[in-house]
Amino acid sequence: MNLAQATVLLWVLGSLQAFEIVEKENIFQRTPCPAFLMFDNAAYLADMSFELPCHCKPEEVSAVVWYYQKHLGSGHTKVLTDFDGRVLTEAAQVRVGSDMLVRFSIHMFSLLVFRAQPEDSGLYFCGTRKGDYFYAYDVDIQSSERMVATFEDQGQEPFADEYHGSLRVFTTFWEWTPCDRCGVRGEQWRIGLCYLQSPDLSPRYRKTLPDVVSCGSRAVPRQLRAKARDHVPELLLRSCLVPCEKKKKIQEGVMALFSYVAKVGSRPWLPPVPIQFHQQRLGHGLIISCPGARPEHAVAWDKDHQYLYRTQYLKGVNGSMRVFIDHGNHLHIRFTQLEDRGIYYCWRQGVRIAGLRLGVTSRGRYPVSFSNPEIRAALVLTLIGYLLITAVFITIHLCRCCCYLFRCYPNFSP
């Protein structure tokens, strides 16, 4: 390619990019901002990541600032902005429990919040540095701590709708996930969030259906929200079986190279997926995450040739489980034992993508950290036991003192 052709190609690419920017601006020109600020209701499950588009803005505004308030009109407002040169946050770098100020990004005027928590529920405003608001959202993040699992294969049914006068509390289910495994029996599920219907909702909040919002919406009066407090999110599961897609055959030249490198008469072992190695201390806990998976994805776990189905290993099925899968698709191993050694495979959206070879050792030293939940639990139990022993000790001595006083100083009053 000569210089003239390269110049023409760069000019065409620049024209296409300029056309894309102009088209984006035309979208904002065709979408006028409302004269009276309304709030769009949106509900998500804890640990999910979500995006809030700024659907309208004036033409002269080239950068937006997002604001967060826990309640409408509250004095404390968080300013979410990237105009100081922050690097865009990536979901893989976000840790559970981090403050929202390090779990967000702004991309093309849209706000992205990673691994949202129930504390992130509230009102989000799209505006300018001066505090002019264009668009707003009412976000409800529902906790998964008390989520109830319903197994369709066992004849179980979801919760029935609740009625409290004119108030109706019900569950709205998302679409079924794809089958989490292929070629063998798998599972698929759908997440159900709490919603309610009432004529007593605030008219300032925009609803997708008449008088219907999520249970944690700011449009719900406090007395109605208390009645819907016991209606928790649901997880509906069922079995499935789908065939695997045909994989591309490895080229003969590659196989010949492997045979040449290997010993004569033997073929090298090729792992089906990339495998990492991890050494774990005996008796310590371990949490394994599936690469690139989110709570709404179809994720499955296998140990060697054993399938870890949610009907047996889902969190809450059995209170004494040492190995379980939580609602965020993480595999938990409490108090690692020697029989936990092996390869743990991870499936995502029906495709096996990664593996972890786990080794267990009884040697080595681990630094003590108060961020470890097991260490914190042990310290709390030790402190409670110490306080109980102290209370019993003081009670016994008080009783002995009382008995001594009554014996030494009898009551001579008639």
UniProtKB/TrEMBL annotation:
Membrane topology category: Single-pass type I membrane protein
Alphabetical list of InterPro entries matching this protein: FAM187A/B, Ig-like_dom, Ig-like_dom_sf, Ig-like_fold, Ig_sub, Ig_V-set
Keyword entries, A-Z: Glycoprotein, Membrane, Signal, Transmembrane, Transmembrane helix
Spans traversing the lipid bilayer: 377-399
Record's keyword annotation contains Ribosomal protein: no
Signal peptide stretch: 1-18
Gene3D superfamilies xrefs: Immunoglobulins
Domain Ig-like as annotated: residue spans: 268-346
Name of this chain's protein: Ig-like V-type domain-containing protein FAM187A
Organism: Neophocaena asiaeorientalis asiaeorientalis (Yangtze finless porpoise)
Gene: FAM187A
